[in-house]
Amino acid sequence: MTGTVTSHRSSWMDADLDIYRDAVRRFVAEEILPHQDRFARQQHVDRSVWHKAGELGFLLADIPEIYGGGGGNFAHVAVLMEELAYAGDYGFGVGVHQIAANYILHQGTEAQKRSYLPRMARGEMIGAIAMTEPGAGSDLQSIRTRAVLHDGEYRISGSKIFISNGAMADLIVVVTKTDPNAGSKGVSLLLLETKGAEGFKVGRVLDKLGQKAADTSELFFEQVRVPASNLLGGAEGQGFRHLMVELPYERTLCAVTAIASTEAALRMTLDYTRQRRAFGKPLFEMQNTRFKLADVKTQATVGRHFVDVCVQRVIDGTMDADTAAVAKLWTTETLGRTVDECLQLFGGYGYMMEYPIARLYADARVQRIYGGTSEIMKEIIARSLAREPS
């Protein structure tokens, strides 16, 4: 499935990216699609898939070659995320892996970049970001995980929940408090290598409504030792700033996945309604069906053009937090509405998990939550309105 039912070509695409897309599509068809049911049962994608993706240059494609990356830009990452969404895959945690790598690229020391990015690009190290806690989600200033410096090492204590790539992660960007009395200025990010880390424990791999193949876990830290050299950027109290700088990248990535998922829902529903017959004729020939799909196509088209602008802005380095919040809010909320309308046209079959539309319905729901909830996006947008001149 190509995902889209229009001839629209994203403005940021070029001939080289066409070749890249074809290669990504073959990789997804060969390495992921045949194994989706097994990945869902085991609640993670095989490490061999990560290694293969690394060999083919699909990991960290937007990271400079000097650090082992592909030397491309955000368009390459967008292509990968689109093709995974078109194929109905939300288990291969490359999005979070990319985000973690960009934290290191933009905020890390030179030694941190040279140590970790090449291994992440090869798929030898799977990256994760540990932000959310049982008592602190969107309000990152309320996190309770502590890191205390002692004899050249930080000792991390606390817990995290809903961590993507958590159980398989080899490298975790851990959001901690290094000064609990300094509010947002007391937040720091530490790079934890999980292999052999005494006191680090992976809890449950969580049973979710959708995205079954995604490794989403609880993490526990009991005096876990991390070298002081693994403080991201080398200075305490910069964590909140790091997060604010990198979140537009993450939220644009969410928007890319959401609009591609909307296009995928439209494609599969159009195919189904053309084949499914009711009252002696294809379901598509009924006016209600055509009007419903016309509305979905309109929303998908509008969203696609906006997301294309956002992708270009990330490439150009001009993306801002307010626009990223608008993109994340609009595309994920639109996905929720449109996939619901599409599922309805499948009738009872739409409720059966053997149909891709049912799986997409379940997979789509969390997209309004992770990367910042819709409510947080609205708050960010509202604050931007407050800054508008009267």
Task: Describe the overall structure.
With 390 residues, the protein is α+β, with helices and mostly antiparallel strands. The protein has eleven helices and nine strands. The protein has helices spanning 15-32, 36-42, 47-55, 74-86, 94-107, 110-121, 239-275, 287-316, 321-345, 356-365, 374-386, and strands at residues 127-130, 146-150, 153-164, 171-177, 187-193, 200-205, 216-227, 277-278, 281-282. It has a four-stranded antiparallel sheet with strand order 2-3-7-6, with no helix packed on it. A three-stranded mixed sheet has the order 1-4-5, with helices on one face. The termini are far apart. The mean pLDDT is 96.
Radius of gyration: 21 Å
Strand content: 5-15%
Cα-to-Cα separation, first versus last residue: 48 Å
Order of helices and strands: HHHHHHEEEEEEEHEEHHHH
The overall pLDDT, averaged over residues, is 96
**What sort of overall outline do the alpha carbons produce when their principal axes are compared?**
globular
Strand order of the largest sheet: 2-3-7-6
Low-pLDDT segments, ≥5 res: none
Outline the fold blueprint.
Blueprint (H helix, E strand, L loop, with lengths): L14 H18 L3 H7 L4 H9 L18 H13 L7 H14 L2 H12 L5 E4 L15 E5 L2 E12 L6 E7 L9 E7 L6 E6 L10 E12 L11 H37 L1 E2 L2 E2 L4 H30 L4 H25 L10 H10 L8 H13 L4
Parallel strand pairs: 1-4
Antiparallel strand pairs: 2-3, 3-7, 4-5, 6-7, 8-9
Summarize the structure.
Helix content is 48%, strand content 15%.
List descriptors.
3-stranded mixed beta sheet; alpha+beta; 9 strands; 390 residues; globular; 4-stranded antiparallel beta sheet
